[in-house]
Amino acid sequence: MAACNDYYYATRDPLGSAGDFTTAPEISQMFGEVVGAALTDVWRRAGSPAHAAYVELGPGRGTLAADALRVMRSAGLDPDIFLVETSPTLREVQAAALNGTITHVDMIDALPGDRPLLVVANEFLDALPIRQHVDGAERHVTLTPAGLAFDRDGTILETSPARDEAVEALSEGLVAVGGVALVIDYGHARTAPGDTLQAVREHRFAPVLADPGEADLTSHVDFERVADIAREAGAFVAGPVEQGPWLERLGIQARARVLANASPERAGDIEAARARLCRPDAMGSLFKVLAIHSPEWPSPAGL
Ligand code: SAH
């Protein structure tokens, strides 16, 4: 899964209608704007520390960062930008989408250790590799005459050492320098068995073992596990809450009205995007928002 996704992301921009999948920031500017407002608010309540950094994990096209930073700057917060991104292709797209001082790093460990961090990770953890286990034995992929196949079936438990390490490094970083992270992803609030590995290509589910490296491989994030790891690292946690109610509490409806009044010809599209982000039968319920923050920082709003 790691090798497939490394290759997949390094060799294309997979986002948007011409690509394989569409994420919340690509649906509407309102998503990134709400994130920017939430970060600005918590930064102010933390005493408006100078030199806070904006950090994004897996920033895709840089759309979320551009929308969030526009709101932050209009409110007097102009952070340096640190992007954790391994794909050379997407690094270029991000640099073109953003202005300001941008530093790309490969790993969370390489983030600055001398200033508070305002972190966003949208659909990042789901792309990190998982392991699957059946009756206590790890499920492997084998090569058969018919192609790739799983070597066992049954009730599946998923673990993700890579995800655990990422959350631990992030939480330790926040505890060391202060700050907050908004982790947004699809997944479940409680640890549960189940096979959630999926491949998406051209906006449809694809067989997970077909065409390795040519589809987006993800799995659902176990938010109970993420929260436990963050707490073990000494951080505080708020949430998870469902994305729809979170966006609504932070005022997405009011923002949609302002945008629709400014561009009446786009009012229908704006309302459709708001509904897609918020409705329980679209992205509003499956997607969750969890905040991880250093003990001396307040919790972000809406959680
Ligand atoms: N957050 C963006 C993109 C999500 S796609 C959005 O919401 O639109 C996943 C992103 O994570 C891509 O930018 C991908 O290149 C990056 N990524 C995947 N695996 C990674 C890894 N191991 N280290 C760093 N970045 C990774």
Automatic annotation (TrEMBL):
Q: What Gene3D superfamilies does the entry give?
A: 3.40.50.12710
Q: Which residues form a coiled coil?
A: none
Question: Has keyword Methyltransferase?
Answer: yes
Q: Which SUPFAM superfamilies match?
A: S-adenosyl-L-methionine-dependent methyltransferases
A single Pfam family it belongs to is Methyltransf_28
* InterPro entries to which the protein is assigned, alphabetical: NDUFAF7, NDUFAF7_sf, SAM-dependent_MTases_sf
Q: Does the keyword Methyltransferase apply?
A: yes
Task: Cite the entry's keywords alphabetically.
Answer: Methyltransferase, Transferase
Report the protein name in the record. Answer: ATP synthase subunit beta
